[in-house]
Specification:
By secondary structure, the chain is α+β, with helices and mostly antiparallel strands. It has one domain: VSR Endonuclease (Endonuclease, Chain A). The protein has four helices and four strands. Keywords: DNA damage, DNA repair, Endonuclease, Hydrolase, Nuclease.
Length: 137
């Protein structure tokens, strides 16, 4: 296996990143609950598709994905690392491609994907999610 050109500090920082129950996810769920919405957490909207949504509204067929600005290439806040830049650009672009494919696959099955960026205010994102859920009831 080829060793990546990254420092031990970078490796430790990146491997320490939480993939679930991040601060923005918890804050968003708190707001959704405050708005009277009930949901499932970290579920596959479609069993046959190995993609897990952060918040799922099964009866309304709404899947909410909370995307990190770095990992998913936020158009406003994405940064491109200088060290091992080719590796990171390929990884982030692959994440973007997978996200777009997930949205298409879910839409084909009658689901609506709602993407929330980590920089969004949870109160505002929760209202957007509520509108999506109530419009599909």
């Amino acid at each position: 296996m080829e060793r990546l050109a990254t420092t031990e500090a970078t490796r430790a920082r990146m491997s320490g990143q939480k993939s679930r129950d991040t601060g923005i996810e918890v804050a968003l769920r708190r707001e959704l609950h405050r708005l009277g919405l009930r949901y499932r957490v970290h579920r596959r909207p479609l069993r046959a598709v190995r993609r897990e949504a952060d918040v799922v509204f099964g009866p309304s067929k709404v899947a909410v994905f909370v995307d990190g600005c770095f990992w998913h290439g936020c158009p406003d806040h994405a940064t491109w690392p200088k060290r091992n830049g080719e590796f990171w650009r390929a990884k982030i672009e692959a994440n973007r491609t997978r996200d777009a494919n997930t949205d298409v696959v879910l839409a084909a099955a009658g689901w609506l994907s709602v993407r929330v960026w980590e920089h969004e205010r949870p109160e505002i994102a929760a209202v957007r999610v509520r509108e999506a859920v109530t419009s599909r009831r």
